[in-house]
Design goal:
- InterPro entries: AA_ABC_Transporter_Permease, AA_ABC_transptr_permease_3TM, MetI-like, MetI-like_sf.
- It is found in: Cell inner membrane; Cell membrane.
- Pfam families: BPD_transp_1.
- Keywords: Cell inner membrane, Cell membrane, Membrane, Transmembrane, Transmembrane helix, Transport.
- It is a single chain.
- Helix content is 78%, strand content 0%.
- By secondary structure, it is an all-alpha fold.
- α2 runs antiparallel to α11.
Amino acid sequence: MIELLQQYWPNYLYSDGFNYSGLVITLWLLVISIVLGFGLAVPLAVARASRNPWISRPVWLYTYVFRGTPLYVQLLLCYTGIYSLNYVHTHALLGEFFRSAMNCTLLAFTLNECAYATEIFAGSIRETPAGEIEAGLAYGMSKFKLYTRIILPSALRRALPAYSNEVILMLHATTLAFTATVPDILKVARDANSATYMTFEAYGIAAILYATIVFALIWAFRRMETRMLAYLKPQGH
């Protein structure tokens, strides 16, 4: 393992300004897909929780498709399927975008993450206590203010435990990026294994890196839950 670390540790951990390490690529995929997915999921969750079927049904269809099909298939469709369409590969901007493995991977991950986050947030919005809504209406809040000041802040806080699990699952899902030739941690591990035939060591290092990231995420989310959900704990007398 020492020999493998000496030869390949820069590929796992170190970025030289031109080539990014597997760790950096993995974190980049995770952060971008989570940030974009979250930003898209919040308004879609409001639409999904709407009682108007013309608003909620299209969002339901989107989440149904992306939650009902494997992420690997979605990645292949984005990476090879869309670019094979004549209109796409002959269009300057679309062709340039879908020629990039990183762009296609981020697109698939973001859409998949958004679908799961939308359902998590929508369920939390539906479970908003009626008393909180009535209090906002009693203050004369408009529907927009009701959502931005009461419903969404309360719902996002209560959705935090479920959403933290989804973020960790998204980290696990980034291991599919190597199939699109994106040089993430798993791709580096496969290259190291192919060059050295030190299978246990190559994948063992990858497992340690993934576990470290997961433990850091768990710690961060637990701190957030302790701070943001403190009002839900029983108060002592």
